[in-house]
Amino acid sequence: MKSRNVVRLFFSTLLLGGISTLIASFFVKSNVYADFLNPFDWFEVLGLVIFFLALGFVFSLISQMGFFAYLTINQFALGIFRSYWPMVQIALIAFALFDLVYFRYKGVENGTITPFLLTAIALFVYSWIIARIKAKETNKKAFIPALFFMVVITSIEWVPGLRTSGGDYAWLMIVPLVLCNTYQLLILHRLTEKK
User: Where are its TM segments located (predicted)?
Assistant: First the structure.
């Protein structure tokens, strides 16, 4: 990949992370915005916009680090596991989904498992769709690695958000992570293809 494309990927993903977090903040943190809209305090609203934009940049950087770490790990794993690597990835996908449900539910004293189950199912279904698109645009062998990246790597990147109390930042974090990971996964083969 040319250095120009690396820079383009970096800044476009950074922008996507910032804008998506800002938009998500209008829904997740609407009460914070409401406090400064009546009466309107433009300085505080501007501060919130800058804060959530910068937070999105951070989430985007986490996504980008995860993406390039995955590209490196995938090459090492192909050398170590060879033909068994797809099966190892499937096992890790199952473990990551189990982890998203069981270990998060285990930490809740009074509550139902349904929200945790729905979160894992939604991530898996979305990841399946994106992996199908990736496989269709490249080749069939790209399906399992794409699914692995979207489920396992996104789950690992999401850990800091999941450890916060209240859950607002968990939801605020997953939006840019999923969007940035999707964008990077689907744009990579376009940036690396030879004209």
Answer: 7-28, 48-72, 84-105, 111-131, 143-163, 169-188
Q: Which positions ≥6 away from 194 have C-beta within 8 Å?
A: none
Any idea where the domains of the chain sit in the sequence?
3-192
Within 40-194, where are the H helices? 42-81, 85-106, 114-137, 143-148, 154-162, 168-192
What are the tens digits of pLDDT across the range 86-106?
Answer: 999 999 999 999 999 887 777
Q: What is the pLDDT of residues 115-171, one digit of tens each?
A: 889 999 999 999 999 999 999 999 999 999 999 999 999 999 999 988 887 778 889
186 close to 9: Cβ distance less than 8 angstroms: no
| pTM metric for this prediction | 0.91
Neighbours of 169 (CB within 10 A): 18
Helix (H) or strand (E) holding 149: none
Distance CA 88, CA 134 (A): 20
d(CA 187, CA 169): 27
